[in-house]
Amino acid sequence: MTKNMPIHKLRVFRTADVLSPEVEAFFSAELAEFRELASTRKLRYEWGFAIVCAVDAQEQVLGGAYFEYGPRKQLNNTPPPLADENVAILEHILVLPELRKQGLGGEILNKALNVAQRLSCQHMRCNAQWDDPAEIGLYKKCGFALTDIEDGSFFAVKPLC
Fold first, then answer.
1. Residue 137 C-alpha from the chain's centroid
2. The model's pTM
3. What span, in angstroms and rounded, lies between the C-alpha atoms of 73 and 54?
4. What are the Cα distances from residue 114, in Å, to 49, 54, 60, 75, 159?
5. Of the candidates 43, 67, 44, 62, which has an alpha carbon nearest to the alpha carbon of residue 107?
6. Are 92 and 132 a contacting pair, CB within 8 Å?
7. pLDDT tens digits, 2-27
8. Neighbour-count burial of 4, counting CB atoms closer than 10 A to its CB (0-12 exposed, 13-18 middle, 19+ buried)
9. Alpha carbons 53 and 112: distance in angstroms, whole number
10. Fewer CB within 10 Å, N or C, the chain?
């Protein structure tokens, strides 16, 4: 931790948890999309979400990771696409600009990997922009393999078992 990094703790939230207004605001787009799909039953399988947030002493969000995991169970008697294999799909990892390059992103991502593993996910996958060397470096540092490139994005994956 560098001297500019505020004292913080990592908090984990899951689908059924009540989120603070700060967490809701930080991940508003992701949460809105997930809730809209879930409420209209456009999902063929039940998925959940998890958020790992770094918060300061006043519970202000410094950064966080949002991922969806599943399928937890099938809906409408439709078998899951990969049998019983659960996957975590990292949608976003965000750190406040003034706190970047101080290790907070790696701390958050490693905690998200740990949470996904405890949720019985076999791997975590995500997309990384090829023109963002910091993002690609973070994924590589945390053990992700860049496996493919499509439309300017790498497909990155990390086994969890």
1. 17
2. 0.85
3. 30
4. 14, 15, 23, 27, 11
5. 62
6. no
7. 557 889 999 999 999 999 999 999 99
8. exposed
9. 9
10. C
Single-letter amino acid code for the residue at 133: P
Residue 64, classed as helix, strand or coil, is strand
CA atoms within 13 A on the CB side of 114: 10
Please choose, from the candidates 107, 102, 99, the residue with its C-alpha nearest in 3D space to the C-alpha of residue 60: 99
CA distance 155 to 150: 8
How is residue 41 written in tokens? 């039953």
CA-based end-to-end distance of the chain: 29
**One-character DSSP codes across 18-50:** PPPHHHHHHTHHHHHHHHHHHHTT--SEEEEEE
Residues 59-115 have pLDDT tens digits of 999 999 999 998 765 555 555 555 567 899 999 899 999 999 999 999 999 999 999
Write the pLDDT tens digit of every residue in 115-128.
Answer: 999 999 999 998 88
> In 3D, which of 57, 48, 156 has the Cα closest to residue 109?
156
Do residues 151 and 50 lie in contact, with contact meaning Cβ atoms separated by under 8 Å? no
What are the CA-CA distances from residue 70 to residues 56, 64, 73, 96, 122 (Å)? 30, 20, 8, 28, 10
Q: Give the list of residues 6+ apart from residue 160 with CB closer than 8 angstroms, or none.
A: 88, 113, 116, 117, 121, 122, 123, 124
